[in-house]
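Pilot study result, target chain (140 residues):
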Amino acid sequence: MDNFWLPTVSKTDLPALRQFGLGMALALTLIFCLLLPWAFDVPASLWIIPVVLTFLILALMGPGLLYWPYRSWMVFASVLNFINTRMIMAIAYYLLIVPIGLLMKSIGKLQYTRGPARDAATYWVLRKTSPAKSNLKEPF
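Predicted structure:
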């Protein structure tokens, strides 16, 4: 059952649930037994071993039992996706778009006018020259 807001698999899609279980076992092992001990110079966490073994056993012997953990993980991942997307877009806007706009405004290179002249009767902009064949071949 595929949902636009929460992409999930059905309870009967055993290969996908098996892949989730194996992937979680691998990811937890890599994060808690290799990455975090290396990054923070601490011994590997032993509490993660039963969790990893549970994921492995369920993935290999009963992947259907991983449906609700999978579903919970997808809810958590969707919330993170919502938050991260907005954060990344806000950072990109304020660190890229706004400075470029301010720079272009300060050097007078904006490609648009802010509005019509107050004394103008229409929005129509008269051309200074008539179009030539060379201008119409590649207008931009």
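One observation from the pilot: The mean pLDDT is 89. A full batch analysis is planned for the follow-on phase.
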